[in-house]
Amino acid sequence: MAQPEYLHNLFSLSGKTAVVIGGTGVLGGAIGVTLARAGAHCVLVGRGEAKGQENVEAVEAVDASAELFTADATRREDLQKIADHLVAEDRQCDVLVNAAGINSATPFLEISDDEWDRIFRVNLNSVRQACQVFGAQMLERKVAGSIINIASMSAITPLSRVFTYSASKAAVLNLTLNLAREWAPHGIRVNALSPGFFPAEQNRKILSPERVEKILGHTPMARFGEPEELAGAVLLLAAPGAGSFMTGHNLAVDGGFSAMTI
């Protein structure tokens, strides 16, 4: 018979602090609720103040603890202020989730330098900066922490039409593997989470009816994922009990998308 106390301890984040970059979005908000329900104090970071406040209220609605920082994930100064705030509050970043991201479906020959740079700045450079800022804090304070970088199925095999997004997410996956090797001796685990197709701001605008039909036809479960269906994967990667020997892994939650051929 299952032992509730054992399961609780395995996935518990009690006493931990989680920083979710992109926590004002749909998936980032759901990840924040998951981490908070497991016992973590959740710091949601993003530019959307109204949506961010809704996500904070969603955390508080389950009797958990969260706070919102309206910040630009691409600005190192903004991230450093959050790290300094944690120290001032006698906290530290135990779990870092890099979930900020943007997309486009511009034909390849029409991709401008500005668009390429903007997407890489949000999707990749924000991850680098957050890992530097909060990773430095983990190293300095000898935190056995977890970093979860949100990659994409397109990081593995690029999807059609999303050239810049695919390239940036492939780079996120590469950076994840590199950091996992570098920081494993310090007790810092670095993993990637690659969602399949979930309803989120960054992909709604590129999902034409024809594209949706193709996606669902290539997804054995024949549906989109719901944000709450990332919860188990997030807890596995975040929890020091359940995920203690996991680092350098890319965990796909995709309804079977990656298993499909013809």
TrEMBL record:
Q: To which protein family does this belong?
A: Belongs to the short-chain dehydrogenases/reductases (SDR) family.
EC number, UniProt record: 1.-.-.-
Looking up PROSITE patterns in the UniProt record yields: ADH_SHORT (PS00061)
Q: What is this protein called?
A: Putative oxidoreductase UxuB
What Pfam families does the annotation carry?
Answer: adh_short_C2 (PF13561)
Q: Which InterPro entries match?
A: KR_dom, NAD(P)-bd_dom_sf, Sc_DH/Rdtase_CS, SDR_fam
What is the organism of origin for this protein? Answer: Stratiformator vulcanicus
Recorded GO molecular functions are: oxidoreductase activity, acting on the CH-OH group of donors, NAD or NADP as acceptor
SMART domains of this UniProt entry? Answer: PKS_KR
Keywords assigned by UniProt, alphabetized: Oxidoreductase
Q: What residue stretches are annotated with the Ketoreductase domain? A: 16-196
What are the coiled-coil residue ranges? none
